[in-house]
TrEMBL record:
Main location, first listed in the record: nucleus
Biological role: Functions as a component of the DNA-binding general transcription factor complex TFIID. Binding of TFIID to a promoter (with or without TATA element) is the initial step in pre-initiation complex (PIC) formation. TFIID plays a key role in the regulation of gene expression by RNA polymerase II through different activities such as transcription activator interaction, core promoter recognition and selectivity, TFIIA and TFIIB interaction, chromatin modification (histone acetylation by TAF1), facilitation of DNA opening and initiation of transcription.
Lineage of producing organism: Eukaryota, Fungi, Dikarya, Ascomycota, Pezizomycotina
Places the protein is found: Nucleus
One GO term (biological process): transcription initiation at RNA polymerase II promoter
Transcription initiation factor TFIID subunit 2 Ig-like domain location: 549-731
PANTHER family per UniProt: TRANSCRIPTION INITIATION FACTOR TFIID (PTHR15137), TRANSCRIPTION INITIATION FACTOR TFIID SUBUNIT 2 (PTHR15137:SF9)
Protein name, UniProt field: Transcription initiation factor TFIID subunit 2
Annotated keywords: Nucleus, Transcription, Transcription regulation
Length: 1269
């Protein structure tokens, strides 16, 4: 995440390329006024020269105004320095349009524009010292060598920061809003901290820090200073606050340890908090937050024996939150103290003295990690009544703690090495979560992540190269966070095979304990792994770290009775490097595709993945035999020896019935050797249960065929050492044996996924429902079985999937012998997850025409209507949200049919049922308005259901409701959903809606909300680019009845058809279509340009909007400016130009045929020209102020004047019939812009500039700048 890894921003390069000095320590003093958003500060930087030729030092600074620089504390004369605030260049002094995007893009802060160069005065001497220094080699060994050392010198810089745009975010200090006022350092890029004070913002520049922050003592004191005017915003805010809120202390949370907190003796309304960091960290890992925070001691959750064992070595863990969130913090963060102790014991000592979490509003991401302090979003907090976000939120918080070791203390050597830092932190997190949630959860989550990697890793560079693109798009960080932990998990499996005592955990611990210089590279990490495993791993890293893509294996097997071997063949298939470019572009990923195309981001996939694979064959006697084969080629053929000399007979039906009835109690008894072989999924075995559940058993022919097999099943990649897709041509009953007899949760999950994708068969639902009903299965396997049953609800097997799902729900969650749902009881988390999965599975059932059957709609409606959560200790908001979402989508899939064209109407296709569903959804939405659910989740899903019904024309248009709910004052999730539905319903091309959307974006203060609004905008732009914005069937073509004759008329040319295809699969075609469809939209152009010129957006948002403009509009190096007429200017052509006397001061005089004009840019310097007499002035024309009355001037008699501007002169040329210019006075060449004179009003000048020059003004002959008013 930002802050953990080095983002490849060019702003960091200039100060780090020079090796003439290093920073030993930096002291920063800040005085922050949150009401005016102003910072006054100073910094003392202790410089260690590396050469006696040090002429100057270069620091990063991109927002502050430097007032004074000194090399001594009491020096009066300021030192010479060069600094230009790059943000000032973004303020345009004239009116521009979106066509000037290229001019603004050149003004973006880069390396040269975001540094301050301070030249060393001659009286500051560099004193050389003698001594040894200790350095680290690549393998971590210490090496003493003699180097030249110099005495440190101090640089004192005073600065002021006003109109803060980056680096600091203020919440609740405006007159609108009822949130508690606070502010904190905001991550908007790698140079965020350089926006607050000068520093060396490089990941390599680690040093000690001392930070002092001076703030108002209480919230009331902050506003009281600016509340003298009764009409001021501060006074109004102060009047609206209660006395208790005014008295809330503003507590300062900062990286490091609090050393003292002093009340200002001169002003008791202010206080100064000082902090010191005991370990050297980079500038980007400094952060702080100020607000009325309450403290929660998380160390109190330690067990008593842990406290006794750790003693003084126990690290304090504290959390800070806004008033009213203490209970949520305790429920969310209680595992952190245990995780702290686990990391300190398993890896190395905590690098700092304490750890703090501070929960704030509007954080752009879930958590932002700095040294000993993690800023977390309030949105991830949940109370003790919420179950669903338990695993995900806990994982993110534990990752924030693990980042203190891998991310803050241990950093990446280069941006490409970021995968190692992120991967190690997530690997540490997952290993700890295994202790809390169990090994099954650990393996299940890795298997699900591996499937996601196989789906996404098409056309994506390797995780090593993704590190340099983290700043390009958030997708690359998320992809690294997904793939890197799984790669390390696979690496750990291989290391443990080679050396059982040296796994990846021990290697990580050794890396941190050996102190490898505070940073690690991929090459260094490779050598450490090879040393731990005593083997070469270049091939592994080349495939999974440097390379992209995942292999696809197609395995075939056959038993050779003559040789008593299993003949196997493994064919490997790879995605080609350009294969993903032929896939359809997704609208929400369009902007990322454009960035990748512009930056030439392509993946190189190797032709063949190689390495060991474990094959486990469960032979006839029930014994598993493991065989390791080496994959070396895309097509492998090999033979595996068979070990069993006889065939074990299967249990008879009578034996299975005895086991199910419990008559065989002792597994060691005679005749019970195979009891454990059928320990899972052997429920619902009686004849009565089979008839009731409509179960199918193996036929005698199937039993005979199974008995003839020489082995039970074959398990490929039994040790989970590959991230791949794998298919094997085993018979279905072998997969069933694996599902029922293999104890590995990964093997069970793979079998369920195979049954889900298998063609319909009458046996499949039987085994899936038994898996779903058997509580001994892991909950992830049971939920996967419920989703698999949905795939077999409308097949050739009679559609028993829906029957089994409904029957399972009635059996587990309804009153006995009734279809009435029982009161909710979510005390069993696994059972609750199964309940939600059944509802989700049923809501997705569709017939071949895409309609949800009436039984599905009726089931969802009744469960939602009779849902009872009165006796439940936990909230049912997620469960109700799933019901509302499923009901809305199901009803929308089956809109009311036209009874005039049909002889009959299906049950449920009447208006009464639709009205009942709509009323039930609105009832829950109204209840959520009075008693809000977690994040207003029920209201959000109710809006989604209404959107589906609205899109299907089942209910009246709800755009008025969407507009109302999108306004400020509603919950952020509701606002974002409303905006998204307005665009999805087709209102995005309407000028009023576009204006409203961009006005909201420009005035929105929350960066998190703006980022979500930008996601909606990019999805809208992407859908227009690929031509799907007005297409109701975005998911694919319509599915027609096979018995229906469909006649399609080709009404477009082949060329147009090719263009439509290209815009869906190629970036070039999509950009051409986007420019054609949206480039001429005036409202969109005005809206996006108003967002560009907004002073509230960050530099990253500014850059993204300019990128969008560059793809939509042609760049122009000219701009239209408006100039007021002189009060007595006349119309006419040029008669002559009076030359300027060389004795007089320069002045510009234009004499027209019917009058004269004078131009005075600086009256104090230019002598005014004598006004013409009254006879020479034209008579005024009186025109009534009526738009319908215009002066009647013949077209041919309307004079047009062209002002041609060039450097050093201004000439007015006549467009009427005038003689050609003489050779002595040739007409100036372009740049020119025509200006049409009209009766009254203003004229417009179109100025064209040299693209390499800044359009700050036009120089005249005397050097004065001519600027537009």
């Amino acid at each position: 995440m930002p802050g953990l890894v080095e983002e490849p921003a060019p702003v960091l390069e200039p100060a780090t390329t020079s090796a003439t000095f290093a920073v030993a320590q930096q002291k920063v003093s800040l005085e922050i006024d949150p009401v005016t958003r102003r910072i006054e500060g100073s910094t003392d930087i202790e410089i260690a020269p590396l050469s006696e030729d040090l002429k100057s030092i270069t620091l990063h600074c991109r927002q502050a105004q430097i007032t004074r620089v000194r090399w001594k504390p009491k020096q009066v004369i300021a030192s010479d320095f060069t600094y230009i605030n790059a943000y000032d260049a973004l303020d345009i002094p004239f009116v521009t349009t979106a066509h000037q995007h290229e001019q603004l893009k050149r003004r973006l802060p880069d390396g040269e524009k975001t540094t301050v160069e301070i030249r060393r005065p001659s009286h500051v001497q560099i004193v050389e010292l003698a001594g040894y220094t200790t350095s680290k080699t690549l393998d971590g060994k210490k090496k003493d060598k003699l180097e030249r050392l110099f005495e440190t010198i101090h640089v004192y810089i005073d600065f002021v920061v006003e109109n803060i745009r980056d680096g600091l975010h203020f919440v609740g200090w405006d007159t609108d809003g009822l949130r508690y006022p606070h502010f904190y350092t905001q991550t908007t890029g790698s140079a965020a901290i350089a926006s607050l004070f000068p520093c060396v913002d490089s990941i390599d520049a680690k040093h000690l820090w001392e930070i002092s922050i001076k703030t108002p003592r209480t919230i009331g004191d902050a506003f009281l200073l600016h509340a003298k005017n009764p009409k001021s915003a501060a006074h109004l805010k102060l009047q609206a606050m209660s006395e208790a809120d005014k008295a809330l202390d503003l507590n300062v949370m900062c990286s490091g340890d609090l050393t003292d907190e002093i009340i200002d003796p001169n002003d008791p309304t202010k206080k100064t908090s000082s902090f010191r960091l005991s370990a050297a960290v980079a500038a980007r890992h400094i952060g702080f937050a100020v607000g009325p925070f309450e403290e929660v001691n998380l160390a109190a959750f330690r067990e008593s024996d842990e406290d006794d064992r750790l003693g003084r070595n126990a690290v304090p863990v504290h959390a800070f939150c806004l008033p009213g969130r203490t209970a949520d913090v305790k429920n969310t963060c209680f595992p952190l103290a245990k995780a702290m102790d686990h990391f300190a014991v398993e890896y190395t000592q905590y690098p700092f003295t304490s750890f703090k979490l501070c929960f704030v509003d509007d954080l752009l991401i879930d958590h932002y990690d700095t040294a000993s302090l993690s800023l977390c979003s309030n949105s991830i907090l949940f109370g003790d009544q919420i179950i669903d976000p338990l695993y995900e939120t806990t994982r993110e918080l534990i990752f924030a703690l693990a980042s203190q070791w891998s991310g803050i203390y241990l950093t990446a050597d280069q941006p490409n090495d970021s995968w190692a830092i992120i991967g190690i932190a997530y690997y540490m997190t997952d290993c700890f979560l295994r202790r809390i949630f169990g090994n099954n959860e650990y393996r299940y989550q890795n298997k699900v992540a591996a499937q996601k990697i196989c789906d996404r890793d098409t056309g994506v560079p390797g995780i090593f190269y993704c590190g340099q693109y983290i700043g390009l798009d958030r997708f690359y960080y998320n992809f690294i966070a997904l793939k890197a932990p799984v790669v390390l998990f696979v690496l750990d499996r291989r290391l443990l095979k080679l050396n059982a005592s040296h796994g990846l955990a021990r290697m990580i611990a050794k890396t941190m304990r050996d102190d490898v210089g505070g940073k690690i590279s991929t090459n260094q990490f490779l050598k450490l792994c090879e040393k731990a495993g005593h083997t070469k791993l270049e091939t592994f890293f080349q495939q999974w770290v440097y390379g992209g893509g995942c292999p696809i294996f197609a395995v075939s097997q056959r038993f050779n009775k003559k040789k008593l071997v299993v003949e196997m063949s493994i064919d490997q298939i790879q995605y080609k490097s350009d294969q993903s470019r032929d896939e359809p572009i997704v609208a929400k990923d369009f902007i990322r595709e454009v960035k990748e195309h512009s930056n030439e981001v392509f993946a190189e996939v190797q032709s063949c993945f190689v390495g060991p694979m474990t094959i486990r064959i469960h032979e006839a006697d029930g014994t598993p035999y493991e065989h390791i084969v080496e994959i070396k080629e895309p097509r492998m053929r090999f033979e595996i020896p068979y070990n069993t000399k006889y065939k074990r007979l299967k249990r008879s039906r009578r034996q299975r019935e005895k086991v199910a009835a419990g008559t065989i109690e002792d597994p060691a008894a005679e005749g019970a050797d195979d009891v454990l072989l059928y320990c899972l999924g052997d429920i619902l075995g009686t004849d009565e249960e089979k008839r009731e559940w409509r179960l199918e058993e193996w036929t005698p022919e199937d039993q005979e065929r199974m008995n003839q097999e020489s082995y039970e099943w074959i398990r490929m990649d039994a040790d989970f050492e590959w991230i791949c897709k794998l298919s094997i041509n085993m018979p279905g009953y072998m997969f069933v044996s694996q599902l029922q007899q293999d104890r590995d949760v990964v093997a069970q999950y793979e079998t369920v996924e195979y049954l889900r994708t298998h063609k319909a068969h009458r046996y499949i639902t039987t085994f899936l429902i038994r898996t779903l009903m058997d509580e001994r299965y892991f909950h992830g396997v049971r939920t996967a079985a419920a989703i698999a049953l949905r795939a077999h609800s409308m097949g050739n097997d009679g559609g028993k999937g829906f029957f089994h799902l409904r029957k399972a729900f009635q059996e587990m969650f309804c009153l006995k012998g009734s279809n009435m749902t029982s009161p909710n009881d979510f005390s069993d988390r696994a059972k609750y997850l199964v309940q939600c999965s059944i509802v989700t599975a049923i809501s997705g059932i569709r017939d071949p025409s895409g309609r949800a059957p009436f039984g599905v709609r009726r089931f969802l409606y009744e469960v939602l209507r009779y849902n009872d959560n009165g006796e439940n200790d936990y909230s049912d908001c997620f469960y109700v949200a799933a019901l509302i979402k499923g009901l809305g989508e199901a009803v929308a899939s089956a809109p009311l049919r036209d009874t005039e064209d049909l002889m009959t109407v299906d049950e449920g296709d009447d208006y009464d049922f639709l009205r009942s569903c709509w009323s039930e959804i609105e009832r829950y939405q109204r209840r959520d308005g009075w008693i809000p659910s977690y994040h207003n989740l029920i209201s959000v899903m109710a809006l989604h259901a209404k959107f589906c019904l609205d899109k299907a024309d089942c209910i009246p248009k709800a755009r008025t409701e969407y507009l109302y709910l999108s306004q400020p004052g509603n919950h952020e999730d509701i606002r974002i959903s409303s905006f998204g539905y307005l665009f999805d319903l087709g209102y995005g091309l309407s000028s009023p809606y576009l204006t409203y959307f961009f006005n909201t974006y420009v005035t929105e203060r929350s960066p998190h909300t703006r980022a979500r609004l930008m996601s909606i905008l990019t999805k809208f732009v992407g859908s227009i680019a690929i031509g799907d914005y007005n297409n109701p069937n975005k998911a694919g073509e319509e599915i027609h009845d096979p018995d229906t004759l469909v006649i399609e008329q080709q009404d477009v040319s082949t060329n147009n058809r090719k263009i439509e295809i290209d815009r869906k699969v190629t970036v070039e075609g999509a950009l051409a279509g986007l420019k054609q469809d949206l480039g001429g939209d005036v409202a969109f152009m005005a809206g996006v340009w108003s967002a560009v010129l907004s002073p509230r957006i960050s530099i990253e948002e500014f850059s993204d909007l300019l990128t969008l403009c560059s793809k939509l509009y042609d760049a122009q190096s000219s701009v239209m400016v408006t100039v007021k007429y002189p009060r007595w200017m006349t119309y006419g052509g040029v008669e002559k130009i009076k030359p300027v006397s060389s004795n007089e001061k320069p002045k510009l005089l234009l004499k027209l045929k019917y009058g004269s004009i004078r131009t005075e840019r600086k009256p104090k310097r230019w002598q005014p020209y004598a006004k013409p007499t009254q006879e020479q002035r034209p008579k005024p024309i009186l025109i009534k102020r009526d738009s319908s009355i215009t002066p009647k001037v013949p077209q041919e008699s309307r004079p047009k004047t062209v002002i041609k501007i060039r450097q050093g002169s201004m000439v007015v040329a006549d467009n009427r019939q005038t003689p050609a210019p003489t050779p002595s006075s040739p007409a100036p060449s372009v740049p020119t812009v025509s200006m049409s004179n009209r009766e009254g009003g203003s004229i417009k000048l179109k100025l064209k500039f040299n693209p390499k020059s800044r359009p700050n003004g036009i120089s005249t002959t005397n050097g004065d700048a001519v600027k537009s008013p």
